[in-house]
Amino acid sequence: MSAAGQRLTIRDVAARAGVSRAAVSLAFNNKPGVSETTRAHILRTAEVMGWEPNRSARARGSRGTGAGTGTVGLVIRRPARQLGLEPFYMDFISGIGSVLTERSGALLLRLVRDLDEEIELQRHWWRSGQIAGSVLVDLQRDDPRVPALAELGMPVIAVGHPSLTGPFTALWTDDGTAVTEAVRYLAALGHRSIAHVGGPAELGHSALRTEAFTAAMTELGLADARRRVTDYSGDDGARATRSLLASAARPTAIIYDNDLMAVAGLSVAAEMGLRVPSDVSLLAWDDSQLCRLTHPSLSAMSHDIHAFGAEVARAMYDVLGGERVTGRQVPTPSLTPRGSTGPPPPP
């Protein structure tokens, strides 16, 4: 990339290498017409410049006109098996896909192991012209992806609180307000010992929810606030629930950071001979179909994840169309009481 953040071109590589543009094209497409020495020189020059050949010019569509058939990138740090079970991302991706279909666009999805792998992948996608822009998810505090992708000059829509997203357009839900509503609801039912089973501590939205949970418990004068950190999987949610319910003074209510862990928690309660909600109340987050298929059905903090994904995709196309897009908050998750919450057991 140039200092101005412009995408490097075949002309730039040719000028730096001291060869023709045709020679660069032949070298990168591994076609006859240049010597192996010249080919190696061109490839080394391009690597030093951080340029990769445009494998798919159509990926960018008509950026700047608003009428492109852009390909949007999405990288998720999750094991494939876990992602397939997690309702949030399934609904979120379907929401993005609904807008891409309307625009004749496409989604380039990849699962990675860590942030370093994601940064290198995003760089490759952008420099080789495979994507028009990218959706950034699971933001961390001081996330290294933010400066790395900002340096590329790549259009990005960041799904996270503005305090996490740097210069990128942010779309987010007010998770702090939602957590506070959940705690107040359970306290109004009479619960004084409430636990929170959250996601990985390094994730920004997990940290914000934890802070809101602690603040709400303190505000209500509830000292018995217990927390468990998980990887969002059902297995980890089950382990956290088992640990809480096996403690000497078990909580009378548990708030989970996703539906999958809440369903696992419901199974653990049954395994331990506890009745829901007579012995312990359980409250899920996201409110997917899973919450309505259990017995009892799970109370949840509900929000329209499909619509959230669609809003993210529309914001991306607005950016690609040259519009100035400001960050915005999407509707806050709201409480949907069902059969898994009720008053605590008598002392």
UniProtKB/TrEMBL annotation:
It comes from the Bacteria. Residues 324-347 are annotated as: Disordered. InterPro entries: HTH_LacI, LacI/GalR-like_sensor, Lambda_DNA-bd_dom_sf, Peripla_BP_I. Coiled coil: none annotated. Residues 331-341 have a biased composition (Low complexity). Keywords: DNA-binding, Transcription, Transcription regulation. SMART domains: HTH_LACI. One of its GO terms (molecular function) is transcription cis-regulatory region binding. PANTHER family: ALANINE RACEMASE, LACI-RELATED TRANSCRIPTIONAL REPRESSOR. This is LacI family transcriptional regulator. It comes from Streptomyces niveus (Streptomyces spheroides).
